[in-house]
C-alpha cells in the first residue's frame, strides 16, 4: 500500500469491508459527499481527527509514528507527507 495515497488506501479498506460511502459516512457522523470529496483527494485529508474517525468507522486503528526507518513488516501502512 505504500504507493497508494492515504485516501486510496482508506477507500480500499472501505470496499473490502463492503461499506458504501454512505454507510461509512453514517458511522463517522458525516455525509456521503464528505467521504466522496476525501476519496477524491479534497477536504481535510490529513487532519488527524478525520483519520481517527475513518479508522474507528472501519474498525481499524490509527497509529502515528515518527521512526527513523520504516520497518519492512509494515505492509498495511501509508506514508503521508
CATH superfamily, please? lambda repressor-like DNA-binding domains
Work out the oligomeric state of the chains in this entry. Answer: single chain
Per DSSP E runs of 2 or more residues, the count of β-strands stands at 0
Number of helices: 4
Helical content class: 40-55%
Q: What is the CATH fold-level name?
A: 434 Repressor (Amino-terminal Domain)
* Alpha-beta content class: mainly alpha
Strand content: under 5%
Secondary-structure arrangement, i.e. CATH architecture = Orthogonal Bundle
How would you characterize the overall build of this protein?
The protein is mostly helical and 81 residues long. The chain has one domain (1-81): lambda repressor-like DNA-binding domains (434 Repressor (Amino-terminal Domain)), CATH 1.10.260.40. Helix content is 46%, strand content 0%. It contains four helices and no strands. The chain has helices at 6-16, 21-28, 32-39, 48-57. Helix 2 (21-28) packs across helix 3 (32-39). The longest helix has 11 residues, at 6-16. The protein is globular. The two termini are 15 Å apart. The model has no long low-confidence stretch (mean pLDDT 78).
Amino acid at each position: 500500500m505504500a504507493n497508494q495515497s492515504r485516501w486510496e488506501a482508506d477507500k480500499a479498506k472501505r470496499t473490502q469491508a463492503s461499506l458504501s460511502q454512505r454507510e461509512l459516512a453514517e458511522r463517522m457522523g458525516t455525509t456521503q459527499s464528505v467521504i466522496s470529496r476525501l476519496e477524491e483527494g479534497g477536504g481535510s485529508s490529513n487532519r488527524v481527527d478525520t483519520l481517527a474517525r475513518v479508522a474507528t468507522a472501519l474498525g481499524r486503528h490509527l497509529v502515528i509514528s515518527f521512526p527513523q526507518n520504516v520497518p519492512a513488516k509494515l505492509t498495511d501502512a501509508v506514508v503521508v507527507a
